[in-house]
Design goal:
Layout (H helix, E strand, L loop, with lengths): L1 H12 L1 E3 L3 E8 L2 E2 L40 E4 L3 E8 L8 E9 L16 E7 L2 E2 L4 E2 L7 E5 L7 E11 L10 E12 L127 E3 L2 E3 L2
Parallel strand pairs: 1-14, 4-12
Antiparallel strand pairs: 2-3, 2-5, 5-10, 6-7, 6-11, 8-9, 11-12, 13-14
This protein binds 2-acetamido-2-deoxy-beta-D-glucopyranose (NAG) and copper (II) ion (CU).
EC number: 1.14.99.56
Family: Belongs to the polysaccharide monooxygenase AA9 family.
GO molecular function: hydrolase activity; metal ion binding; monooxygenase activity
Length: about 325
């Protein structure tokens, strides 16, 4: 089979390494804060591996360290915050979709020691896939950071912000979707009088059987896409801005550094007041199915998919001569 010879040829020319990504820094006031300063250190801070069991408690924040590792930062309702992507390479290089949820710590509970349990999570932002009946595209692909507004109507108080990228490149079998999750701790000031909802629990919000999670994104090409989770709150306004436009070049930047170990932080609160703007994604989707995707001297598109093979689907990413996530 021709596709197999392409696969074998590419594999013999390059080394293989498994690598994914995580979300170690909160962006506040346009500043990348320190690694794991306001974001709870995730269980994949070193190996960058995804979570795949949506029934696990780890689907909440992907962190076994629910207190003592992160500080809480003050942010104004209506201001823009975000998370940076660190990985190998450092962008959301898997085709997938993005969601951001928030949850308010119960009165009298310090968010830094709150586990986020219960029906407490509401969605404030999303970047779905776009299926137009002919093609399906993933505007979050290639982002090096994701920024979004804290809803102006959100009441003041302490919250967790939970970001997730759901990578769908091998999501055609149950448990194949890859969840890249992290939670930050914030104190929201200058809040509004809204009532966020609908509220969901993690675990609980997903079964893994949702049409937007258990999905073959390659063949047949989906003619529609249903974003996992509840609708964005508030329903109208700034909570769901248009997704960023994706370009067509896959990043070839080598990410040689691993995530730095967490620094010990004391419980401090820092205030940022300036706003930042959403940046454009750095890369996008790659080559057509069965096309060459890598090897020595290859300068073309560096991702392909082989959905029809029994072993499939594959995704090929070549980063400085290495196939990642083969
Ligand atoms: C903040 O992080 C993003 C994503 O990694 C990066 O593109 C940007 O250059 C960083 N900004 C600064 C000032 O370091
Ligand atoms: Cu990956």
């Amino acid at each position: 089979m021709k596709s197999f010879s392409v696969l074998v040829a590419a594999a013999t020319l390059v080394a293989k390494v498994s690598a994914h990504y995580t979300w170690p820094q909160l962006i506040v006031g346009g500043v990348n804060t320190s690694t794991w300063q306001y974001v709870r250190e995730t269980n994949n801070w070193q190996d960058l591996n995804p979570l795949t069991d949506v029934t696990s408690t780890d689907v909440r924040c992907y962190s076994s360290l629910e207190s003592g590792t992160a500080s809480t930062v003050t942010v104004a309702a209506g201001s823009t915050v975000g998370f940076t992507v660190v990985g190998n390479p450092s962008n959301l290089y898997h085709d997938g979709v993005l969601n951001v949820y928030m949850a308010k710590a119960p009165a009298g509970t310090d968010v830094a020691s709150w586990d986020g349990s219960g029906d407490v999570w509401f969605k404030v932002y999303q970047i779905p896939a776009i299926a137009d009946g002919i093609t399906i595209t993933f505007p979050s692909t290639g982002l090096t950071e994701a920024t979004f507004p804290i809803p102006a109507a959100l009441p003041s108080g302490q919250y967790l912000i939970r970001i997730e990228h759901i990578a769908l490149h091998v999501a055609s079998s149950f448990g194949g979707a890859q969840f890249y999750i992290a939670c930050a701790q914030v104190q929201v000031t200058n809040g509004g009088t809204g009532t966020p909802g609908p509220l969901v629990a993690f675990p609980g919000a997903y079964t893994g059987n949702e049409p937007g999670i258990l999905i073959n994104i390659y063949y047949p090409i989906p003619t529609s896409y249903v974003q996992p989770g509840p609708p964005v709150w508030p329903a109208s306004g700034s909570g769901s801005p248009a997704p960023p436009v994706s370009s067509t070049t896959v990043s070839s930047t080598k990410a040689s550094s691993t995530v730095a170990p967490p620094t010990t932080t004391t419980a401090s609160t820092t205030t940022f007041t300036t706003k930042t703007t959403t940046s454009a994604p750095a890369s996008g989707t790659g080559a057509a199915e069965f096309a060459q995707c890598g090897g020595q001297g290859w300068a073309g598109a560096t991702a392909w998919h082989l959905p029809q093979l029994s072993l499939a689907p594959f995704t090929c990413h070549v980063v400085n001569g290495m196939i990642v996530d083969f």
